[in-house]
Amino acid sequence: MVRTIGVAGTAKNTGKTTTISTLLRHISRRSNIKVGLTSIGYDGEEIDNITGLVKPRLFLKAGNVVATASKLINVGSAELEIIKETQIFTPLGNVIIARVKKEGLVVVAGPNKSGELKKVVDVMIEKTGCDVVFVDGALNRIAPMAVAEGLIIATGAARNPDITELVRETRHLCDILDLNEAEESYRKLLQNVNTIAVVDKRGQISNYRYSALIHNDMVPELMKIITEDARAVYIPAAVSQPALEKLVDIIDDGLKDMIILLHDPIKLLVSASPGKIAGTIDKIKALKGRIEVLKKVPVLAVTVNPFYPRYMFDKNTYEPAYIDENLLKEEMQRALPLPVVNILKDGPDEIIKILRL
Amino acid sequence: MSKVLEKVMDAVDLETFLVCDSEEEAKKLAVQMMKELGFNDVSTVFVQHLGPGARVRVRGYIYKPGARYNWLFNKKD
Amino acid sequence: MTSQKKKVLLAPLDPVHDIGLKMIKRGLDLAGHDTILLPPDYTPEEIVKAAIDNNVDVILISRTLGYRVAEILGSFIDLAEAAGLRERVKIGIGGMAIKPELAAELGFDAGFGPGTTVEEAVAFVEGRRYVKEDKGARKTKKDLTEKHDYAFKNKKIEKLLNAIADEIIEYAKGKTTPGIERAKIREKMFEASDEAELRQLRKEYAAFCDDLVKVYYEKGALKEKTRQLTSEELNALKSYLEKTKSKMKPSLLQHTETNPVVFIQYGTGCPFMDIAHIKTCEAWGADGVVHFDPSWGARTEGFYEGFITHEEDGSVITYENLKLIKDALMPSTLWQVRAHRGLNTPETVFLAGKVGADLTKINIAYGSLGGGTDPERLAVDAVAAIKYAARFKLPFDVVTNEELCGVPAHKAFAGMLIVAMLGLKLGARPILQPLFCYSPEVMISGQMEDNYVDFNAAKILALKSIVNAPIWCGAPIGFLTQTEDRVQSSLSTALHAALASSLEVDGISIASADEAYSGGPISAAARVDTLRATQSAFRFFGHTKILPTEKAEVWARKIVEGIEQTLESVVQNGSFVDSLYKGLLGSREEGAYPGRAGRGTVKNI
């Protein structure tokens, strides 16, 4: 069973919070599951901070556990009992882990960095006995989700109202998150390496001073340690697509005996659109090279939302608008080997089944 | 009285610019506007008519001294 | 510098440099930190690389918000996280639309929105918990008299005042009035040990009262439009005050140490509305509040008892009402209960002292020439009242509102100085209160045809050339210059405040923006308007002086000469009280009429 589930949106208003709240309401009805909830941002408020449109809030049953900022403890209708006050700081106060004493809505702003998120999730599972912890995303942010054991991606018209483009992008996104895991030997060899490293055919490691490859200027210097004997280039932190593309262009044919290794696929996602990244991956494959990760972040399902806030120029406001929901779901399902759910229409059953809750 | 108006400490002032022909007309319109908005105890605080119209400030008292001020009684909704 | 030196990267994620970021850079430099300000329009990748290359401890980003900008900032944070920066580098975001909630949503460690101080950003960099400097909490009660020794620079005037004040004290000796007797009985009531004694004292008290008040002591009846507050109302007030007090973070009006203390006047008729307005004014920075009683209270012998509200201007003076208001005040708020003009002057000062007021207000000349009280009665009452003021250590101001009747400034000032000297002789600390207004005298004689500055300045210069006494401009400043338009009204008040400050006076009383509006009670919003305007004027001028024309000096000399002549005429006349009747301190032609309330009530013991 996957115990830490991240719900990530591709943009604001793609239905991330609707997905998570629907799941919570459904799972809450069953008494045998203890749910934990936290967020890498702040997403429980009624009015969207930026567009001014109303957003739903999150419901938790008594006995469930929430990790949220101290200033939000008394904001929702749920009555909370503090279990642990952490030293993890957010703009809304330190993160508090609390048990729901009386059911109701909660407002959640939890740890916003992966290291801190991991600590909090561990406490929720090991100390407070949560069977499953949902991590609510924020905006299009995905980096801290590297901690999750499985992802639900919420996308929709708010990301792009053009169905063809949206489907293509989602497909690329899922492909990237589904990059193969490297062989065990590499995983062992590199697990404690914190900088960019080149592994040669004898298994010797040469280090480069940066851990992230995020600028074209870094590539020439990196090339100095990529010798004929190089078998793998490991980048533990972020990789920007243009820099990766440049690296690939320079190594060129040399890639056929080489693997580009990343810590996790999310490190690749933070710098460019999935389409561009997919293009670079295709290039690597065309050169008979491989790009793999030490740790996968499997996508469990994709939820689609036909809603988007349409900007009204004459009124300087956003108004609710919708694209064809059936077409959106059909096209998306055709492109993905994963469950595709319109959560508002289909309900959470299919996702619950995959989660084996 | 609406729940929101109960939170007014004493009076609601409405300020605007009325397109009209005279100060007298402006006064009349301003008071009529307040009555239409549902204010009972209305008075014109300021009116100045020049050229295209009148700058007005018109006031609707919610509570006058000695009244029962609902904000004092700390009712939560 | 107390904390460790930090390396800070400041980066505008905007096409232009944010002024706020530059201000923060300056603050950080002054605090001894290393700062790197990146040029505008760097990409997120370039910013993250610069942070890695320079091994910084903190990144401060500035960005103006729009719809997609949230995603851009979210991507930046993601990149920083994926690049491994987040575990050791703190990242803050600043911009016009930034709130802590938004910073949390975007994943930043802190958000700096409008109103953020440089100190707040420095505290974030240094890892300190930022405690907003609470200027209001540091607010302490000011003593308007502390810088003044009452030394006379004008010896001629001092000599004349000595003679007149001595004569008044001599005149009042062996005389009493119903007002004085009631004050004595009221004092005994506070010392009464049982209900029977109290009943007896009430009976005695009622004997010195007018019928309107007598019926209250006999049958509990109050005058029309007046009622006792219910216990439900009093309980509601208690919880309202508890809640309000816990939320008070008062603003500070003064920008420099030379800005005067600012008073507001209240007297809506209802103690609750008064308190609501007082708390509002305190929150917006008022330093002091002045209690206005109803005009009928000044013409009626005797006070009611209990918690009383009434539906007319002026709030009824009772011990209980005053106590209610006193308990509502912030500890730093100066509180004046005025007693200057009526038949209850001694008892008002006694009650004010007993409840714990900070200031009172007494003037025989105004009270009898413009306030409707018989000169003889008020002279005798005032001596008793000033003695209470001295006993309770209540400084009292001497108003010169007879100017509003048409009495020229020099005559009003002569009357004011006489009462001030009387106060000094009786051991009290008087405060001079010249009007700072567009008075009938100048309307007729034209001293304010060109500007409102010169003649007001002349008054202050004249008083300062006579004696080193505290000056509190009244009341309210700019009186008769304000119109019903709240912008004009607030501006006029603010400019008069700036002028008063430039003249280095100790206090001012300001009006609300409703000053010229007579169609109904003053609104709380109108009070906020002038307090904000005054604060803005103090901020604008700082230590800058307003330069009057040479006429100010000329008129100041004329005022001093006029005061001397007036005082000489009073000395020649022999009796101060008689001088009031005769119009030496303001004549009928000038608009001053000796009052009749309480005439013939002075008794020899």
Our measurement of the CA-to-CA distance between the termini of chain B, rounded to an integer number of angstroms, reads 13 Å
Our Rg estimate of chain A from Cα atoms comes to: 21 Å
One letter per element, helices H and strands E, the order of chain A comes to EHEEEEEEHEEHHEEHEHEHHEEEEHEHH
The structure class of chain A reads alpha/beta
Overall shape of chain B: elongated
CATH topology of chain B, what is it called?
Defensin A-like
Describe the structure.
The complex is a heterotrimer of chains A (357), B (77) and C (605). Chain A has 357 residues and is α/β, with parallel strands linked by helices. Chain A has 11 helices and 18 strands. Chain A folds into 2 domains: 232 residues, 3-Layer(aba) Sandwich (Rossmann fold), CATH 3.40.50; 112 residues. Chain A has a 9-stranded mixed beta sheet, with helices on both faces. Chain A is globular and about 65 Å long. The model of chain A has no long low-confidence stretch (mean pLDDT 90). In chain B, a hairpin with a 2-residue loop joins strand 2 and strand 3. Chain B has one domain: D-lysine 5,6-aminomutase beta subunit KamE, N-terminal domain (Defensin A-like). Chain B has a 3-stranded antiparallel beta sheet with strand order 1-3-2, with helices on one face. Chain B is an alpha+beta fold and 77 residues long. The two termini of chain B are 13 Å apart. Chain C folds into 2 domains: 120 residues, 3-Layer(aba) Sandwich (Rossmann fold); 415 residues, D-Lysine 5,6-aminomutase alpha subunit (TIM Barrel), CATH 3.20.20. In chain C, helix 17 links the parallel strand 13 and strand 14. The longest helix of chain C is centred in the last third of the chain and has 23 residues. The mean pLDDT of chain C is 92. Chains in contact: A-C, B-C. At the A-C interface, helix 7 of A face helix 2, helix 3 and helix 4 of C.
List keywords for this structure.
heterotrimer, A: 357 residues, alpha/beta, Rossmann fold, 2 domains, nine-stranded mixed sheet, five-stranded mixed sheet, 11 helices, B: 77 residues, alpha+beta, Defensin A-like, 1 helix, elongated
Summarize the structure.
With 357 residues, chain A is an alpha/beta fold. Chain A is built from eleven helices and 18 strands. Chain A is 29% helix and 27% strand.
